[in-house]
Amino acid sequence: MTRPATVLSAGPCTVRSARPDDAPSIARHADNRNVWLHLRDAFPNPYELADARRFIRAAAKHDPETHFVIEAHGEVIGAIGYRLQDDVDRASAEIGYWIAEACWGRGMATAALAAVTAYAFERHHELHRIFAVPFAGNPASQRVLEKVGYRLEGRLRNSAIKDGHLIDQLQYAASRDTWRPPSDARSSSG
Length: 190
Prior knowledge:
eight-stranded mixed β-sheet
């Protein structure tokens, strides 16, 4: 039995379940060093069609569904997902996202993050905190988190190595008790 596709309206874009025919668009936009520089090394560089297909297959296996694509203007221009934690951290989830460089600064990451944060809190009643750990040298992602209502919790000094450099990460979080979707975020699942 296949589950129904998730579709979240997110202002200038749509967040939805990934489909096999999304692979070419994902690969085209993900194969960008400027995108890769802001993501974990598990995100390949170069990013090939096989990598996009692997992402789509992995996203389909998550139950409950936690990984989605971001679509705008009829094509996939990014992805967003969260990882539910386990053991003593089971009240938390880590969220991450990427957007095609051509779409940076257009509000799509902000809209997608607001929609998926609301979705995660609605779908997982045991979830009390969603966090993100952007690199300190990525002020655009920090601003996205802040616009959506995530709060800076701290700096993790020398906590990551990216592109051969030791860097700081910042920890942001949204708490079920205090988080409210931004007034301009319109998210609904269908």
